Amino acid sequence: MTHQQKTNIIKKEIIASYKTLKAKYPVLRYQNFIGFSIFISCLLFSAGLGYLWYVDMIPAWALILGNAFLFGVLHELEHDLIHFIYFKNNRIVHNIMLLFVWLVRPLTLNPWFRRVLHYHHHKFSGTPHDVEERGVTNGEKWSLKRLLFTPDLVIGNLLRVVGLFSDIKREVDKGNLKFQTAKKLKLSGVFGLIPFTILSHVILYVFFTDIFLDFLHDKYQLNWVMPDAIKNILTWCNPIIYIVLLPNLLRQFCLHFITSNLHYFGDVEQGNVIEQTQVLTVWWTYPFQLFCFFFGWTHAIHHFVVNETFYIRHIAHKKAHEIMRKHGVRFNDLGTFRRANRYHEI
Ligand SMILES: [Zn+2]
Ligand SMILES: [Zn+2]
């Protein structure tokens, strides 16, 4: 059987399992309503946790863990919105939802620009011009550098951009990528970071530098401290840092760690969905999965059946895994860490 035939069977069987599930629980058909309820609940809960922390009723770590979980759910919702799964025919509500899920996750790319990169990802997963995945360290050799830049879209991408753009140029020269598409990808990758992504990264860089300098000052009496003006700005930004940015840093690290190791890179056969991803369910990934709503369990399913909500994918994941396993999709292939995410042995 060819990979295309296998893929078609996997698709057909997963779609059938979704149909059965929806027939059993008709409430699942109210997609817009469910999506909007998840959206509002996550926003209210995260604001509630923020308030409880602000009035000293919960410690900072509880706020960070709680909001990282909730923003992880909102990330899944954003991904659904990128695929026009909610309010497709009501662009105002649709775009308002997209705006808010971005504002509470400002370390990420602007979702309207991300849509360009993400659609490209679905079409060309694992190729040198899969900008979305390469932007989160997919395909690189494992090192301390990769670990440090896993959550970082600004400095991390600044260090990577020359290599990435020259790879894109090579792909255009070889005829693997249209010139216009290449241009669109590059522009989306750069403009998508402006302004919130860059601004929120800079706030975090200053925040951590301040902590580090204070530590050096206390421990070794070093006199390099942040100027008072910057310390004042940091104090003013404190609620945003604790309620929004630190939870997102944790969430983004977990998501990027999981996604960049479940997608294969570099030697994926063009159009072969079976080789694009693996399923990651191994126990030690649970702490990471918790803050990206078990992305490792479900993202490979999404590569086969794109237009379905994240919660249906989640509810029906057991059946989907059974189908995928039967037809040769990989599960918990930890060799990927050794092979810089190549599908085959190097
Ligand atoms: Zn997608
Ligand atoms: Zn993917």
UniProtKB/TrEMBL annotation:
Membrane-spanning segments: 33-52, 96-113, 187-213, 233-250
One family name in Pfam for this protein: FA_desaturase
Taxonomic superkingdom: Bacteria
UniProt name for this protein: Fatty acid desaturase
InterPro entries: FA_desaturase_dom
Gene source species: Sphingobacterium litopenaei
Keywords, in A-Z order: Membrane, Transmembrane, Transmembrane helix
Domain Fatty acid desaturase: 60-333
